[in-house]
Specification:
This protein has 2 domains: 259 residues, no CATH class; 82 residues, no CATH class. Helices cover 18% and strands 35% of the residues. The protein is built from 8 helices and 22 strands. Strands 1, 2, 3, 4, 5, 6, 7, 8, 9, 14, 15, 16, 17 and 18 form a 14-stranded mixed β-sheet that branches. The protein has a 6-stranded mixed β-sheet with strand order 20-19-10-13-22-21. It is globular, with a radius of gyration of 22 Å.
Length: 384
């Protein structure tokens, strides 16, 4: 039984030879429980972890073809949703979040859903009418196949940990995770525990600019630290984050996304969002990395926050272990509160299984980042 460290080159050679040993995070932990950490490490090269969480922190970046006479974009709308010009004559940026509310319930997520389904969306452009770009208006139909370039930028694609949302207020509180019943009627948790990416790979240690990840069936790339990146967060002795912690931003080509794996939704009182499944390989370079990947849900925890208070720093009720969350009931200040996932364990398992198959076949790149994620704190509040 070899417990020697492995290099990236060692694992790449095993992948080329078809002998790479890959397991889902849950299966690796089961192997540790059955035979011990050392035996599980000796039998496994790569662990696959996956998330399928809601996000409204994303942007569509679309490249349009030219019109005649030329038009320099001042304002644009896609199916009535406001977009911003990005590049003057050919580029659009459309926020996934927000939306028009009732009765349309329409935002950038719904526009993306229509494009991925093969439907056309209405495109309305207003021009600045310069000497070189005299056209003032354009109205037409747009489909994904008529876009020369189309990418989804996930500003907060992967976070180390999630949160548990509750409400101490009366009635229903609309949150980014769904409706909260108060006082303390239910709890919604955004993280998936030990099977998630950030709690299998503390500090997102093997992610950084250039890291390949699987996003809704397509090859995505980490482009750097994401919104709210907090690498210096509080941690357990094992190195696992006690709060959302480090964050990675990811970019992916729309043309490769699978429509059945990416879900548009609309939260009452909050707006549009996407549920996006993402899977990453976690190479077991040494026994220490394997030990972190083997930590169970009873040893991992998430913060409980009061979403009835709309402030930057929300009141907290301490931390609860993921074993309680997964069991469906948590204890907060002596109260038993039923809880439910604000994510999709099924989609996470599906995309994780897809990545395992691709890694074993050698059709998914197994390589490290060009550089690590930034050590700089990315959550610097605006004062005043």
């Amino acid at each position: 039984m070899s417990l020697a460290p492995r290099s990236e080159a060692d694992l790449q050679q095993r992948q080329r030879s078809g002998t790479l040993r890959v397991l889902a995070a849950a299966d690796f932990r089961a192997l540790v429980v059955a035979g011990g950490l050392e035996a599980a490490y000796a039998a496994t090269d790569v662990v696959v972890a996956a998330n399928a969480e809601f996000t409204d922190q994303a942007t569509l970046q679309l490249s349009l073809g030219p019109v005649d006479p030329p038009l320099r974009i001042r304002e644009a709308r896609l199916d009535g949703v406001l977009a911003q010009g990005a590049g003057g004559i050919a580029g659009l940026c459309l926020s996934i979040g927000g939306g028009l509310g009732e009765p349309l319930r329409q935002g950038g997520a719904q526009v993306l859903d229509a494009l991925l389904a093969g439907r056309e969306v209405e495109l309305t452009l207003t021009g600045e009418a310069t000497a070189s770009h005299p056209r003032r208006e354009y109205r037409g139909r747009l489909s994904l196949e008529r876009l020369g370039g189309a990418r989804l930028l996930l500003h907060r694609a992967i976070a180390e940990n999630g949160v548990v949302a509750v409400s101490s207020g009366e009635g229903v509180v609309r949150s980014p995770y769904g409706p909260l019943l108060g006082p303390y009627g239910n709890a919604l948790y955004s993280g998936a525990g030990s099977s998630s990416i950030g709690l299998t790979m503390p500090s997102l240690a093997w992610l950084g600019p250039g890291s390949p990840v699987l996003v809704a069936g397509a090859l995505g790339l980490v482009i750097g630290a994401g919104h709210g990146h907090q690498p210096g967060t509080r941690r357990l002795p094992s190195g696992h984050a006690r709060t959302p912690g480090a964050v990675a931003a990811v970019s992916v080509d729309l043309h490769g996304l699978r429509p059945d794996w990416i879900r548009a939704c609309f939260f009452e009182g909050h707006g549009s969002a996407l549920m996006v499944p993402i899977a990453v390989p976690v190479p077991l370079f040494n026994l220490a990395v394997a030990r972190q990947a083997a930590i169970g849900d009873d040893q991992l925890e998430a913060p409980v926050l009061d979403f009835s208070i709309p402030r930057r720093i929300r009141p907290g009720f301490g931390f609860v272990p993921y074993s309680q969350l997964l069991a469906g009931v948590i204890q907060v200040d002596g109260r038993r509160i039923p809880c439910a996932p604000a994510h999709s364990p099924r989609l996470a398992r599906e995309i994780g299984a897809c990545l395992i198959e691709q890694l074993r076949k050698g059709c998914f790149p197994l390589r490290g980042p060009l550089e690590p994620l930034s050590a700089r704190q990315g959550l610097i509040p605006l004062e005043g």
